């Protein structure tokens, strides 16, 4: 689907006797094109195996979502209980960021981190406070003979709206399917400026299910927490996170917090719930 067909498209349909109208927001052509380029090759991943405690997955039985089915949003959406620049702010389907929130310390990733490629030479942004730990992690991966690239980083509220609308269009207006793989605006961890989508030359810098089988993905799963990065949506916990498994999606919460989360055998969603 071309970008021209995406911009200003309106999709209206009936779902469970409710009308849901989607309007693509007017953003700069460059920003919308980047969103589509970064999203178009995502595929769902297998959830046959849960990752180990070293990959920050709960050791104990975890509660499932109280919303049925698990990918639905609750009827009572709440505002986040911490500031957006707090590493432990809980952003999920129940808690949303304000549409006006944007980090004040965003910097270009590939202008500040070496040995890390930005796919399509995109000017990906991330909060400056995590640059040092990101560089340390990339250096360690490089020393282990691994290649890492970035497919997505900070997304504004309006860019997330475009991303969600794109996937809604791809899925024929099916909200249920779209809500399993894409966050609605205000509910995305990418708006925090502390979340990265990784890839590798092993899969030609692709994004999706094939990343899970790469050496880069396995290295991140075992080592990213040492540098403050933890996987956001682990395998086997879809009913807890509300999203399908994403092996490429990592959020920075700081080294001490990542260590505490690991020690407690918790996934990110449950760890953040305990802090909010």
Automatic annotation (TrEMBL):
Source organism, top-level taxon: Bacteria
Annotated ranges, domain D-alanyl-D-alanine carboxypeptidase-like core: 126-255
Q: Name one Pfam family in it.
A: VanY
The stretch of residues making up the signal peptide is: none
Keywords tagged on the record: Carboxypeptidase, Hydrolase, Protease
Q: A single GO BP annotation from the record?
A: proteolysis
- What InterPro entries has UniProt attached to this entry? DD-CPase-like (IPR052179), VanY-like_core_dom (IPR003709), VanY/YodJ_core_dom (IPR058193), Zn_M74/Hedgehog-like (IPR009045)
GO MF annotation list: carboxypeptidase activity
UniProt name for this protein: Serine-type D-Ala-D-Ala carboxypeptidase
- Look up and give the organism this protein is from: candidate division WS6 bacterium 36_33
